[in-house]
Amino acid sequence: MSVKKRPEKAMSVGAVASRAGVTIATLHFYEEKGLIRSWRNNGNQRRFDREVLRRIAIIKSAQQLGFTLEQIRQALANLPVEKAPDKSDWQKLSKIWRAELDRKIMEMTRLRDELDQCIGCGCLSLAYCPIRNPDDQLAEYGQGAVSWLDLPESDSDAQS
């Protein structure tokens, strides 16, 4: 945070929170995590440039897609700080996230298609478990519900 004189672009914390649809605490949290930046005016009041609204929109969209704040922070590090991300910036960002989204879509499709199968929890009480997980073989992969999402691809296919 630094002192700058850009009153024509300045937005208060409350104005940004209201316009972005987040709480003031969320803005402070995002700033603490390095996702957004503010500056102080001569009266030592926290101010944000209007460009922060687009960054917040990107953060919220990415969170809805299941990205962690750390993944979002890393991606935002590739965007300009002093201006709103433009179309080319967004294309760079979307390229970074595309592979991860494709992976998640594949996992969710597999989950949807195999919801009625054994999740590898070790209960052995369901009719399918003695067939799909005899003698609780999936226990060697860890505790709890060791679903096919947690297994290497070849092991998952062997269990179905």
UniProtKB/TrEMBL annotation:
One of its GO terms (molecular function) is DNA binding. The keyword Metal-binding applies. The keyword DNA-binding applies. Residues 10-78 form the HTH merR-type domain. Gene3D superfamilies: 1.10.1660.10. SMART domains: HTH_MERR. It comes from the Bacteria. Transmembrane segments: none annotated. One of its GO terms (biological process) is response to oxidative stress. This is Redox-sensitive transcriptional activator SoxR.
